[in-house]
Amino acid sequence: MTSSAPTPAYRRLSVEERRSQLLEAALTLFAHRAPEDVSLDDVAEAAGVSRPLVYRYFPGGKQQLYEAALRSAAEELRNCFDEPRDGPLVPRLSRALDRYLAFVDEHDAGFSALLQGGSVVETSRTTATVDGVRRAAAEHILSHLEVTDPGLRLRMTVRMWITAVEAASLIWLDEGKQPPVEELRDWLVDQFVAVLSVTATRDPQTAALAESLSADG
Amino acid sequence: MTSSAPTPAYRRLSVEERRSQLLEAALTLFAHRAPEDVSLDDVAEAAGVSRPLVYRYFPGGKQQLYEAALRSAAEELRNCFDEPRDGPLVPRLSRALDRYLAFVDEHDAGFSALLQGGSVVETSRTTATVDGVRRAAAEHILSHLEVTDPGLRLRMTVRMWITAVEAASLIWLDEGKQPPVEELRDWLVDQFVAVLSVTATRDPQTAALAESLSADG
């Protein structure tokens, strides 16, 4: 820890700003490459700083940087689900899906690597971060449906649909982003309404919801 | 490698038989506990052999034993999908699901640990084994549907449903195996028919299938 004079570029940013800048550079790299293919040198280069500076902010190296970038991406993804509680339900779901699919489009390679599992950087902490996003998505949907005490069958329906959306996103990326995003969005919305109707035939709580949903549209 | 006289118990089994016996003991342990909670000593004890003997067959230790047990479970799971190509399609899917859900019931804790990810024994090889089972399930379904050249929308529909079935299995285990397995099976079959109908509205290939499926039932 010698107090050598920092270069002008280093001096301009506060600790928080520098951390954000490094995180942003890392996130951009991790978004478009598998974690295996990103080195700390790449991050340093993308941020225009030295490798030791990256280590000063992230002493845990690539793993720590990856987990921090993932948490920041998870936060961004949660924000996609924010949707005003006005107007009919189906268009609300449609708008939230639009934002979610834009996120998938923007973070393509990183999104695939993360969700396909078996990555070297995958730990119980990264799994917990991803699960937290899934839970947040389910809570958002249930709160828009205005259900305070969702039963097992309704909860399962919502979580199964969220998993199906994830699977669709991965295949969509794999297939060169086909079918077109608007078609994918409408298709996923229609599937939600369809699986809710299936559950409605065996669950009174879901039946009441399905009815108000179709009255809505 | 001294040729000391083996104990009677060791002498009785051939190399292949011994390997199978160890694998079976491991599979039973890994089925009901998270991999973290199974030690080589546990496997040796369950098989009634010494720890060094387990190492002789699986020099890679627990990781190698886990991967071998997983491959053997994957094989068993693939067999669940075998279903004669006779009679209406929906009951065929229903019978295959019955076998699949019995497998999930039997391998509960191991199944959850494996699919929930972030486990210490998870590697790109274990991920590939699980993905192989998913692919086999999709191929089985498409071959029962008698589609030789499935388009993107149909493939996506089948894969999304398979993922939803996996999610349902995990929640089902988490919820103390509720709802009852027969209800879960019928629910999943109904969902398959429903999502196929949704895809049918935007894909001629799926539309033809959905029609023959409803003519069937």
Automatic annotation (TrEMBL), chains A, B:
Residues 16-76 form the HTH tetR-type domain. Residues 39-58 bind DNA. InterPro entries: DesT_TetR_C, Homeodomain-like_sf, HTH-type_TetR-like_transc_reg, HTH_TetR. One of its GO terms (molecular function) is transcription cis-regulatory region binding. It comes from the Bacteria. This is TetR family transcriptional regulator. Keywords: DNA-binding, Transcription, Transcription regulation. The keyword Transcription applies. The keyword Transcription applies. Signal peptide: none annotated.
